[in-house]
UniProtKB/TrEMBL annotation:
GO BP annotation list: protein maturation
Annotated keywords: Metal-binding, Nickel, Zinc
Name recorded for this polypeptide: Hydrogenase maturation factor HypA
Binding-site residues, Ni(2+): 2
HAMAP family (alphabetical): HypA_HybF
Similarity comment: family membership: Belongs to the HypA/HybF family.
Annotated GO MF terms: metallochaperone activity; nickel cation binding; zinc ion binding
Species of the source: Photobacterium marinum
InterPro entries xref list: HypA/HybF
Residues that span the membrane, as ranges: none
Length: 113
């Protein structure tokens, strides 16, 4: 379950940033997660709640925004939407695709007190 490790690292980064800025509490964390990232959002939520225990982020809310997958097709020279890995280009059925978005995990912002 790599979501627990991701949650621990996310909370560590958020807490460290909030401390450096002089805040006393983190109330919300917003993440952007790519649809191809293989991250299960419910498992991430559970891991986040666990990782926040005993930190200045305890009780913080977690908001997750899913980022759709897009790729550049080198055959038809167009940006296309993908539903899953291994798909062909929906326009030309080519497989020479370079992923543009959909693999990321980003801390978008945090709310603090």
């Amino acid at each position: 379950m790599h979501e627990l490790s991701l949650s621990l690292n996310t909370v560590d980064a958020v807490v460290e940033h909030a401390r450096q800025q002089g805040f006393r509490r983190v109330t919300k964390v917003r993440l952007a997660i790519g649809s191809l990232s293989c991250i299960e959002s419910q498992a991430l939520q559970t891991g986040f709640e666990f990782a926040c225990r005993g930190t200045m982020a305890e009780g913080a809310g977690l908001e997750i925004k899913m980022i759709p997958a897009k790729a550049w097709c080198e055959d038809c020279c167009q940006s296309v939407s993908l539903q899953a890995r291994g798909m062909c280009c929906p326009n030309c059925q080519g497989y020479r695709l370079a992923i543009e978005t959909g693999e990321e995990l980003k801390i978008k912002d945090i709310e603090v007190e």
